[in-house]
Amino acid sequence: MSQDHLEDRLASLLGSADLDLPARPDATGVVMGDVRRARRRRRAVQVAVPAVLVVGAIAAGSTFLPRYHEKVVPAVQPSDVLTGTGIGALQLGMSLSAVRDAGLTGAELSSETDSTCVTYEGRGSVAQFTVVDGQVARIRVDAFATTPEGIGIGDTYGDLQAAYDDLPQGTAGMGSVQFNALGAQGGRYEADLEIPDTNADRSADTDDEADFEATRITGLSLSSRSPALESC
Q1: Of these four, 1, 55, 208, 213, which has the most CB atoms within 10 Å of its CB?
Q2: The 3-state secondary structure of the chain, one letter per residue
Q3: Which residues cross the membrane (predicted)?
Q4: Cβ distance 82 to 146 under 8 Å?
Q5: In a structure prediction context, what are the per-residue pLDDT tens digits for the chain, which is 232 residues long?
Q6: Pairs from 98-107 (Cβ < 8 Å, separation ≥ 24)
């Protein structure tokens, strides 16, 4: 099952009126993030096991080595990576015509009345992208994409802090955070954060800082530094 089909089926299931309790608005993104991490761990194990067997045989002085070279081992496909300039063939600054020629444009989702800002459905791990003045200015990805440091939807603010040094201290009510790509002069990342349940019971000795570190990332995007994007 493709990731797009899986996400559509999951969203339909969680949005069903037949559920005894309504699902939280970000449930689909959180579950897809868990799926992405599980697949990444499984792929890592598939690569590591043959290597461990070979090293163990050499260490034991065995003249027999597993003959993996006789098998056709499928290539391990990494998760899509959202770098500081874009993801795959879709890059910040591309003209809309170039994006269309590359077959990366889906349906038009929204546009401003003056047509300066237009949002399109993306392909693959690109959930959607926004074009400003004819150029790609923002790319929003799904739960199967990560930054080069492995941060994606479903990870926590604590994971984000461990990967990036320039983050502000998390505080309750902070709905999103922006941060720069490491070692790149590209765009700026923005991570949407889950909204805490303000009605939940909180004890007097609750550690707010530790509590916020467990806040999940529910959305991830990359934006250019174009001032025109602020009006979209």
Answers
A1: 213
A2: CCHHHHHHHHHHHHCCCCCCCCCCCCHHHHHHHHHHHHHHHHHHHHHHHHHHHHHHHHHCCCCCCCCHHHCCCCCCCCCEECCCCEECCEECCCEHHHHHHCCCCCCEEEECCCCCEEEEECCCCEEEEEEECCEEEEEEECCCEECCCCCCCCCEHHHHHHHCCCCCCCCCCCCEEEEECCCCCCCEEEEEECCCCCCCCCCCCCCHHHHHHCCEEEEEEEECCCHHHHHC
A3: 44-65
A4: yes
A5: 445 555 666 667 666 666 666 666 666 666 666 666 665 554 444 434 444 444 454 455 544 444 444 444 444 445 599 999 999 999 999 999 999 999 999 999 986 656 688 999 999 999 999 999 999 999 999 999 999 999 999 999 999 999 998 787 766 668 899 998 877 667 899 999 987 665 555 554 555 566 788 899 999 999 998 888 887 7
A6: 99/129, 99/131, 99/136
Residue type, 127: A
